[in-house]
Amino acid sequence: MKLDWIAFDADDTLWQNEEIYREGREKFLEIMAKYSVQDRAEEAVDQVELENLPHYGYGVMSFILSLIETAVEITEEDFRGKDVRALLELGKEMLTAPPQVFAGVPEVLKELQSHYPLMLITKGDLFHQQRKVNASGLGEYFRVVEVVSRKTVPVYRDLLNRHRVAPDQFLMVGNSVRSDIQPVAALGGWALHVKDHLSWSHEQGALSPEEQARVFEVGRIDQVGGVIHRLTQAGNPAG
Ligand SMILES: [Mg+2]
Predict the structure, then answer these.
(1) For residue 118, which of 109, 106, 128 has the smallest C-alpha distance?
(2) How many whole angstroms from 198 Cα to the centroid of ligand 1?
(3) Are 65 and 72 in contact (CB under 8 A)?
């Protein structure tokens, strides 16, 4: 295998993300307990979040709007202004929380960037994602940072075309089968699935046998460098 570019997902691949949302949901459920609708809140918010993805896309602001919408709905519009304020404050805390970079990440990026140009491909709010890249201190390792609204086959195709990268010389590293692995494999690229961290259930997905042949797995982010070196020294791993 010959690689021209290596790309990394950010959320739950380089730094913690899902954990912050879990804590946010717990805080939401605490607020809803005051209205005695806590038992319905969890299921309702899952549904509202998925329904809102086409309207708001991914990210904290979308999440907070979905919490407010859920709260207004299940309290039959009795949800109080001071609790709306508490949810808005929760959003600001989530947006300004310093990214918790996983152990071993800077070492992996530093080593790989001496052999390959690296690209960061992350989805969500543009402003928030850029802030996390800056605050993480990892920005210097990436030649290109792309913030996209979703990670689908057409989005990756456009991105590879713009950077003039042949799919079979491109490898994407990420935690999400749905966003980082399946679409890249479907395009004829290579994907390395890092399985160790919490992922949102929405990010799970299935692979066809053809796609599976273009996907590799590691248990931890600090194993990524070793696997890539083995793959690029071997012949055709799909053959
Ligand atoms: Mg991710």
Answers:
(1) 109
(2) 9
(3) no
